Amino acid sequence: MEYKILATDMDGTLLKNDKSLSSKNIQALRRAHQMGMEIVISTGRPYATLKPYLKIIGIDCWLITNNGSVIRNKKDEIVDVIYIDHSTLLTVIKLLENEGIYFHGTDPHYTFIRSYRERLRVFRGYLKYKNLNPMAEGLQLLWSVLLNGTHKRIDFKNYINKLGKISSLFIHSNDIQRLEDLKNQLKVIAEVEITSSGRENIEVLNRLATKGNGLRKVCEILKIPASDVVAVGDNINDISMIQYAGLGVAMGNAEEIVKEIADCVTTTNEEDGISHLIDKLLSTNGVHENKKIRV
């Protein structure tokens, strides 16, 4: 079957564990694009942290960011934003502040934080995957959090009371049980979507803001049916788009629940699973769509 859209997650899928893009995956995306496939990058990341990768990929892509709450077209123009409801947001923020746990919020342009010190600490933990030397790490921290203009320190309650809008909330802790307990408290709040892109985080969004709904919106704009779509990912927040697509693919390194839901499994992100998948999609034999086989 000839597929018209390839939607791919970033972290744990298109990116290696050190957050780098392999030349194999880059060339594979370009081949798919040249063959007429629309490429959709679907990620929990905000646009600012995705933009450097887009320059490396070098092709125009549709973008579903902030876990489905923000959609941009191939000209980087915002075509849809789903914000967390005002009253719901106040309820969630009150809970998070009472818990004393790290969180930040995002909208299409900014990351909202309570403390630069706190944000630098959490961001440093993310940088450990890049295996940077101390000087490079320090420069990356300074640029990403303090200098590039994407972070704003706010009082969340005041911001919300002044009708400030937030599309997603990212909650982080190394205490997995604490996150599980918090997730159970969040689940009783109406009108929210609770998801995760890793074991050390929870993400809170409007209940309509999912990667699956974001992909559906892109398909409606392009007038392409779900049956002509391939979606690939590795974590809980990818499930909705894997279920929506005509062919849902799990990475070899995906969580087991993702593999169970997917139609097939490609190789791991360390084994250039995206390149492997695209090679199969573009081959004359195509992709075997029987459940749970490795493509």
UniProtKB/TrEMBL annotation:
InterPro entries linked to this entry: Cof, HAD-like_sf, HAD-SF_hydro_IIB, HAD_sf
Gene Ontology, cellular component aspect: cytosol
Pfam families the UniProt entry points to: Hydrolase_3 (PF08282)
Molecular function terms from GO: magnesium ion binding; phosphatase activity
The name this protein goes by in its record: HAD family phosphatase
